Amino acid sequence: KLAKKVKACGKNKILPLHGFIAGNKPYYNPSRVKIKFKSRRYTPVMKQIKLGFFVGLLGILLPFLSHGQSNSLGDRAQVVVETPHHTVHKQHITHKQKLLFKKPNVKHTPDYEYYHHMEQEAREKQRVKLEEIKSRGVSHPKKNAEYKYYVRAEIVAKEKQHMLRKMDKPQYSDITYFGHKHKPKKHLPYAMRYCKECGIRH
């Protein structure tokens, strides 16, 4: 039978093997068996793993430990240098500078000024041409083709100016209106409804 308990009390002491029973007393093996335990605590592979672990841990902690003292004065406190307080004054903007950021009036744009000048020229040419036709003794001078040409030129110039004034309104120039005469309300996605004026849901 195998021994149930092995009790080592010394290095070379005889160990009794319990399990063989002679009557009511434990039986001692007469062969004086000596059991020695010889086992290494760490194998070479475990030693390499242990060494690698400590080297890695040291490499991780070294950067943090090197920042323990960031000043070059040793244990002395850093000298605080007080800088003078500078007040930032608000820049003065003149009226002419404000006009540069303001949206220009449509009457001051090059296109509108061109058609306005064209209208004045056509009106002046009408007056000159009407006097010339009357001096030639032509009946019904205002029905003459030369006179009607300048009349149509004046009408076209006025229509162009009217169109430019209309296109300058927020209904056409501001993208937030997207075609509406008044600024439309933007509803939430679940409350949107079809608009007959612009043809989209908003």
Question: Can you describe this structure?
Answer:
With 202 residues, this protein is mostly helical. It is 41% helix and 2% strand. Strands 1-2 form a two-stranded antiparallel sheet. A hairpin with a 2-residue loop joins strand 1 and strand 2. Helix 3 (110-135) runs antiparallel to helix 4 (145-167). The longest helix has 26 residues, at 110-135. The radius of gyration is 54 Å and the shape is elongated. It starts with 20 loop residues before the first strand and ends in a 29-residue tail after the last helix.
Outline of the structure:
With 202 residues, the protein is an all-alpha fold. The chain has helices at residues 44-66, 95-101, 110-135, 145-167, 170-173, and strands spanning 21-22, 25-26.
